[in-house]
Amino acid sequence: MEAVNAMLDLFGAVALPGLSSAEAIVTPDEEAELIARIDKANLSPFKFQQWTGKRLTRSFGWSYDFETGCFAVTDPIPGWLEPVKDRAARFAGLESADLVQALIIRYDPGAGIGWHKDRPVFEHVVGISLGAPATLRLRRRANGKFERTSALLMPRSIYHLSGEARHEWEHCIAAMNETRWSVTFRSLAAGAGGIARQSRALYLRENR
Ligand SMILES: O=C(O)CCC(=O)C(=O)O
Which domain CATH number covers 88? Predict the structure, then answer.
């Protein structure tokens, strides 16, 4: 049986190095506007090799194709995401320009995201949660067992994964009965510069 180790601090909040969160990063009006924009953003089902997921996604800035393993420049982050990107960067202690990728997702009832770590080409992960509340579950293997913890993602809240929480722990969100939307911003890992330059040159050639 897997060990359950919810690392709660005295106030009942998750105390996991590298995971921070805050509520009310956007107002209810901004949330409604973001949801309407995401719904109109030409989302498509997440694909992983032969498997098609239920969540609907679209990447901006950079895309990682889970079918081919290709990481490439894609359509620029749209202007309507810029104000939240600025806030996300401030929350994470980064420059807005560092957040070069935005992934928007709609999780309809029955859709979730399985256990994973984000691709190594990315470094900081900053997520904004909209719609139904969700639980971000985290786990890491230690001494042949899983250590586990979780964080509640309230609507309009933000979380930042870096360091240990980002590199040593996997995370997932179980399927829910209500719709949730998310916007995730990512910075590039230090070693991704070379791939980034090549992909950008290719994108500029193809989109001249
Ligand atoms: O929807 C979320 O907040 C999580 C998204 C996520 O884990 C991912 O895109 O890797």
Answer: 2.60.120.590
